[in-house]
């Protein structure tokens, strides 16, 4: 029972790691079982929807962690410029540290799932969750809602693009040039003083 | 003989269309044969390296067309700002027109091929070719070489990122916010007067 009860999160963790490295289709259920050391029967016991459901859960977990990382980062900085910097730098460091192997868990579902509504919806919900998390923090730093939303969206797109080109070129340079234009934008859009909404409240869980 | 001689480009064209829509692994050789109406024996006759070689050729063809599109666009505009606008707008229009199905042929090779050197090298060469094509034109519009390179790189990354998020969100908004920050950057980096290098010369073919 104990073993069974942690098989599910372990399998999601394994799927998440494999998808971000090699994509969705190349992630075999047998690889997920091997990496998570889960018993063979676990897949359809925990994920009746099979690989699709596992991928959807992996994207959800990835987005939740990204949103939490953004929240924590926001607590340690004083402006939208600093938050954009933390967000981009984090993605850059993870990629370089993994020798350009660890990309995003969401992007492959979108690029490989154009005709699979479940994957596409998971990708949309996951990106929306991250964008909303960033937009909330930018607004807290004094930006108006539309600007905050725009900056959040372009920051997420910018990191996604840098992940693709940096992995191809095996160079962190795309992150650096993207960071430069994102901070430029943040500086011009944003007030650097936090708005007066009291303590730094955390964003609500949004499940699109 | 006539039939055999156009099987190769038709198969490359089919592979290119399928990869940009559904990714690398989900593109089966049987689908390529069906879409290109090529005889079954054609794959290993024209592509002894099999699917990997076909994908490499597809990425090369895609990059070549992108570079040509950039050259043509540059002939019709007068500044780096206008060229960035044309480049981003073209990608946006293609995606929306295809109902969010047609992404980039290169990105899936990178995201699915992290441990496949042939795919990764093809991705790197293809992105480099597009970046060099853009950088050449930006320099022609009066930008210094380092700035031109940076703007080209961030434009390519920006379009890649917008393709990922726009496909997920099924909205062109990510292109619009990315275009805004790219043209901002271009305007601040670039002189709008062409430099004096005579006629608008075309970029040399570069095969990295």
Class per helix and strand makeup of chain A? mainly alpha
Distance between the termini of chain A: 32 Å
Q: What is the oligomer described by this structure?
A: homodimer
Main sheet properties of chain A: none
The parts of chain A where pLDDT drops under 50 for at least 5 residues are 192-208
Strand content of chain A: under 5%
Q: Tell me the number of helical segments of chain A per DSSP (H or I, 4 or more residues long).
A: 9
Range of helix content of chain A: over 70%
SSE order of chain A, one letter for each helix or strand:
HHHHHHHHH
Q: Identify the overall geometry of chain A.
A: elongated
Query: What is the alpha-carbon Rg of chain A in Å?
Result: 18 Å
On the 0 to 100 scale, the average pLDDT of chain A is 91
Number of strands of chain A: 0
Largest interface: A-B, 50 and 50 residues
What is the gist of this entry?
The structure is a homodimer of 208-residue chains. With 208 residues, chain A is mainly α.
Detailed description of the structure:
The first copy, chain A, is mainly α and 208 residues long. Chain A has helices spanning 2-22, 29-36, 42-46, 50-75, 80-97, 107-112, 117-140, 145-169, 173-189. Chain A contains 9 helices and no strands. The longest helix of chain A is centred in the first third of the chain and has 26 residues, at 50-75. The two termini of chain A are 32 Å apart. The model of chain A is unreliable at 192-208 (pLDDT under 50). Chains A and B meet through helix 6, helix 7, helix 8 and helix 9 of A and helix 6, helix 7, helix 8 and helix 9 of B.
């Amino acid at each position: 029972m104990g073993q069974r009860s942690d098989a599910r999160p372990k399998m999601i963790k394994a799927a998440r790691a494999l998808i971000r490295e090699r994509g969705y289709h190349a992630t075999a259920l047998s690889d997920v079982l091997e990496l998570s050391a889960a018993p063979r029967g676990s897949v359809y016991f925990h994920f009746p929807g099979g690989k699709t459901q596992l991928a959807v859960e992996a994207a959800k977990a990835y987005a939740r962690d990204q949103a939490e990382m953004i929240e924590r980062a926001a607590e340690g900085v004083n402006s939208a410029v600093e938050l954009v910097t933390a967000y981009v730098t984090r993605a850059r460091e993870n990629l370089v540290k993994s020798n350009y192997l660890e990309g995003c868990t969401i992007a492959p579902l979108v690029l490989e799932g154009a005709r699979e509504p479940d994957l596409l919806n998971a990708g949309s919900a996951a990106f929306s969750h991250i964008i909303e998390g960033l937009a909330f923090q930018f607004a807290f730093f004094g930006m108006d809602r539309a600007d905050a939303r725009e900056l959040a969206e372009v920051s997420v797109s910018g990191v996604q693009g840098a992940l693709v080109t940096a992995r191809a070129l095996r160079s962190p340079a795309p992150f650096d040039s993207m960071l430069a234009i994102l901070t430029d934008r943040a500086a011009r859009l944003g007030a650097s003083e936090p708005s007066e909404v009291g303590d730094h409240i955390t964003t609500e869980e949004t499940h699109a």
